[in-house]
Design brief:
single chain; 201 residues; mainly alpha; 5 helices; 81% helix; 0% strand
């Protein structure tokens, strides 16, 4: 009979504890190394991401601010330019209106002067010039005065004594027809009738 001899060594408790202790320490060191490596890699990734975002975000913010400033500059520039153009146009229109008013007032003064000297035909021509200018600048009061004065001069006896060949009665009728408002229609018809009589004679 063959017998197998197995030698059994008796392990003491302390040795078993030491074995597990060494095993656990090695495993803990391995886990600590893995965790530390993982945390290190995470810190590097998070830090580089933050640094990249900080640099890129700073640049993007700067670009957006510059774009916003340029956009606002353009808006203000456009608004200011359009405001200047509007004001300049209003100023030009105001000056043009004042110049026409001055011209009309000069024509009115010449007409009054001619009327005082009994130069009724010449006075009518100046009143027609004034009427046309007052109509362009929409001065209704002076427009009415011009029509009344034209009619007054045409109703004078021998109003055509100072009539000159350069006076164009058809032109005068055209100006009267275009510039006298509807409210003065009866005066307009009377003036056109008197001037028409002059043309036929």
């Amino acid at each position: 009979m063959d017998t197998l001899l197995i030698t059994q060594e008796f392990v003491t408790r302390t040795e078993v504890f030491d074995f597990y202790k060494d095993f656990l320490e090695k495993q803990t060191n391995t886990y600590n190394l893995l965790i530390t490596t993982f945390i290190g890699i995470s810190v590097i990734i998070v830090g580089s991401t933050w640094l990249w975002n900080f640099i890129v975000a700073k640049k993007q913010i700067k670009n957006e601010v510059v774009d916003a400033i340029n956009s606002v500059k353009e808006e203000y520039k456009t608004a200011i330019n359009s405001s200047i153009e509007v004001k300049l146009k209003e100023f030009e229109e105001s000056i043009a209106k004042k110049l026409k008013l001055n011209e009309a007032n000069l024509a009115r003064l010449y007409a009054l002067n001619c009327s005082n000297q009994n130069l009724n035909s010449t006075s009518v021509t100046w009143w027609i010039t004034a009427l046309e200018l007052y109509s362009q600048i929409e001065e209704q009061v002076f427009l009415r005065i011009s029509v009344e004065q034209i009619l007054y001069n045409l109703n004078q006896e021998n109003w055509f004594n100072d009539w000159q060949d350069t006076f164009d009665a058809m032109f005068f009728i055209d100006v009267i027809d275009k510039n006298v408002p509807v409210i003065l229609d009866s005066e307009k018809r009377r003036i056109i009738q008197i001037l028409g009589t002059k043309i036929r004679n």
